[in-house]
Amino acid sequence: MPTFDVYAKEPDEPVWQVGATGAARFNWEYDDGRDRLLALYQKGKDKQWDGQRRIDWELEVDPYDPLGTPDEAMSLYGTRHWAKLTEKDKGDLRRHYASWQFSQFLHGEQGAMICAARIVESVPDLDAKFYSATQTMDEARHAEIYGRFLHEKIGLLYPINDNLQSLLGDTLRDSRWDMPYLGMQVLIEGLALAAFGMIRDTTDKPLPKQILAYVMQDEARHVAFGRMALRDYYRQLTDAELREREEFVIEGCYLMRDRLRGVEVLENFGIRRPRPRSTASSPSSSRCSANCCSAASSPASRTSACGANASSRPTSTWACWRWATPTSTC
């Protein structure tokens, strides 16, 4: 079945074209490379796997409860809207939320595949080109798997989130070769790894747990690659050049925070986007929920991220996921 037949909302355009700039770089030195990067490249080759054979696609999935999400983890739980939902409505809501989450994973993986290919083209170092070539294959496999899960097991997809699309566009339009690293390997992949881990550790459904466990093995290498490849280069940059990249990271963090809100699902259920509250109007309070969420398993980390009131914030990943939605404040 064509994907456009199962979108909850049709994408604005069938193909998104991003104007890219920058040079394709060749390197004629073939016997030089950083040992740690070459070791990561070897691991990338050794760890290839086939999603068609490795994943047990015979496992059944209830499309109306794909992740086993408890009521209290739903963003509408405890609100006036939740009380109006029938049991069928709640099943539909679970289906839409799971579809929205995995659809963003799917679109992100396609973005990662394109960014990895862009790194192969533009990075000057051959060892980095080698590793990025293996990552391109990894991301293609992940997109294949998430696409199959959404088509066959849930039967519903969502278009790419505006904030994720914005960060991908900014990353790909920049002519500097290190920006796909920074935007994708550090920001998007880093957040994705945390999101995959949270769902893997909280779901009791075997198929999504299996998918995420295998994908995470690859993603951990990708994040390590981004940090490793940029470390030496960033030591050479001027203060002004570093500030430009810091600003890019800060803006990217805001975009990724807003990507997690899932307002598209709520709008499908007739709930309009909430107006920003005064308590969340400052950068520090806006960042608080995302920081607390990432640190939810550690009270000490929560206190560091969110201050003295951290004890009143969620202590479980399920509660944290709900708490970081638009219906809650920090």
List the helices and strands and how they pair.
Layout (H helix, E strand, L loop, with lengths): L34 H12 L4 H4 L25 H4 L3 H36 L3 H29 L7 H12 L5 H24 L3 H29 L4 H21 L3 H6 L14 H12 L4 H8 L10 H7 L7
Helix pairs in contact: 1-5, 1-8, 4-5, 4-6, 4-7, 5-8, 6-7, 6-9, 7-8, 7-9, 11-12
Describe the structure.
The chain has 330 residues and is an all-alpha fold. It is 62% helix and 0% strand. The chain has helices at residues 35-46, 51-54, 80-83, 87-122, 126-154, 162-173, 179-202, 206-234, 239-259, 263-268, 283-294, 299-306, 317-323. Helix 7 (179-202) packs antiparallel against helix 8. The N and C termini lie far apart (42 Å). The model is unreliable at 278-330 (pLDDT under 50).
Name some characteristics of this structure:
single chain, 330 residues
Average residue pLDDT: 84
Instruction: Indicate the low-confidence ranges by residue numbers.
Output: 278-330
> How far from one another are the termini?
42 Å
Q: Give the overall form.
A: globular
Q: Describe the biggest sheet?
A: none
Number of strands: 0
Oligomer: single chain
Q: DSSP helix count?
A: 13
What is the structural class? mainly alpha
Tell me the series of helices and strands, N- to C-terminal: HHHHHHHHHHHHH
Q: Provide the β-strand percentage band.
A: under 5%
User: What helical percentage do the residues reach?
Assistant: 55-70%
Gyration radius, to the nearest Å?
20 Å
